[in-house]
Amino acid sequence: MKPVSDHVKENLQILFVGFNPSIRSSETGHHFANPNNRFWRILHEAGLTPRRYQASEDEKLIALGMGITNIVPRPTKAADEITKEEYKEGREVLKKKIEKLKPKVVCFVGKGVFQEYSGKKAVPWGRQMDSVVPGTIDFVAPSSSGLVRMNLTEIIEIYKQLADLVSSK
């Protein structure tokens, strides 16, 4: 399986960070491509995108000041297939990427992604009090996976906080 290319540039408003690409994302070459993943719907309904984008349009987020990467590049069927070694390496690569790109906000798509990145156990939704990389804001949002049991309306409300955060500047 092939990794999925990052869509990033310097000084983004938001850099979304997922666990790793799904099998479907690897097959298509696009982020959040699994039909059961609600990422694109959530972004639109939270007011982050002017319309509902398709996974095949993931590179168009750059024009909106948003980018996408993952903590681990290897595609898997499920996040529980990621090894401790992959997380350790991914954490260092991601930190360097954030230091270089200097996004305003780093949005972790899933509490577990931020926990693996930061090493913190207790993590609230939304803006974090301390950021791992100084000069950026760490924001934790629910995973957009269709496997998440959280109500979609609740998920969208948390992503709306992200929209408010970037529109306040």
Automatic annotation (TrEMBL):
GO MF entries: hydrolase activity, acting on glycosyl bonds
Main enzyme class: hydrolase
Gene3D superfamilies tied to this protein: Uracil-DNA glycosylase-like domain
Keyword set, alphabetical order: DNA damage, DNA repair, Glycosidase, Hydrolase
A UniProt-annotated Pfam family: UDG
Record CDD domains: UDG-F2_TDG_MUG
Domain (Uracil-DNA glycosylase-like): residue spans on this chain: 7-158
The enzyme's E.C. designation: 3.2.2.-
Matches recorded under PANTHER family: G/T AND G/U MISMATCH-SPECIFIC DNA GLYCOSYLASE (PTHR12159), G_T MISMATCH-SPECIFIC THYMINE DNA GLYCOSYLASE (PTHR12159:SF9)
Record-given protein name: TDG/mug DNA glycosylase family protein
